[in-house]
Design brief:
With 166 residues, the chain is α/β, with parallel strands linked by helices. The chain is built from 6 helices and 6 strands; from the N terminus they run αβααβαββααββ. A 4-stranded mixed sheet has the order 3-4-5-6, covered by helices on one side. A two-stranded parallel ribbon has the order 1-2.
């Protein structure tokens, strides 16, 4: 083979094999990204030269809601069927005080403080960064539903507290 052909093959191989995309499309990778972890080091092949990162906010939102719902349901021992959901870019959660013996204001204050710190980038704990910064970056508002249930699990009364997320 002549030198020009070898150079062309080398450049073609570099262009085809030297580029890679890291897709951030789930809550775990999103947490790694927003907490400052080097995704390129973690997910890219060593031989890749050019790396791009793409973010799929819709899939991350869905995965986050699934995670949050499972986590909250576990905390309330599955006494209700749903604890977190999305409407457009609004996050809705049932206040844990609705099922547990906690004053509603305690959970509302915790969310308000957590979101405020997230907006100021003052969280240092990985899980706090993941939860609160996800809410501030991917949702416009958080609605906390304070619900009173009867003995059969039917809603007797509902009060909703809105908290601006961004």
């Amino acid at each position: 083979m002549n030198t020009r052909v070898l150079q062309f093959v080398g450049i073609l191989a570099l262009l085809v094999g030297g580029c890679s995309e890291i897709k951030v499309d789930n809550f775990q990778k999103w947490c790694e990204l927003i907490s400052g972890e080097d995704l390129k080091d973690k997910y890219a092949k060593s031989w890749v030269i050019k790396i791009s990162i793409s973010v799929d906010e819709d899939r991350i939102r869905d995965d986050f809601i699934s995670f949050l719902n499972r986590s909250l349901l576990k905390k309330v021992q599955y006494k209700v069927s749903e604890m977190a959901w999305i409407k457009a870019d609004e996050l809705h959660i049932v206040n844990l005080s609705s099922i547990q013996n906690i004053a509603p204001e305690i959970m509302i204050d915790k969310w308000e403080k957590g979101l405020k710190l997230a907006l100021q980038k003052k969280h240092t704990d990985f899980s706090d960064i993941c939860i609160y910064e996800t809410v501030t970056r991917l949702f416009s508002i958080l609605y906390i539903h304070n619900i009173k249930f009867d003995d059969n699990g039917s809603v007797l009364e509902e009060d909703v507290t809105p908290i601006q997320a961004n």
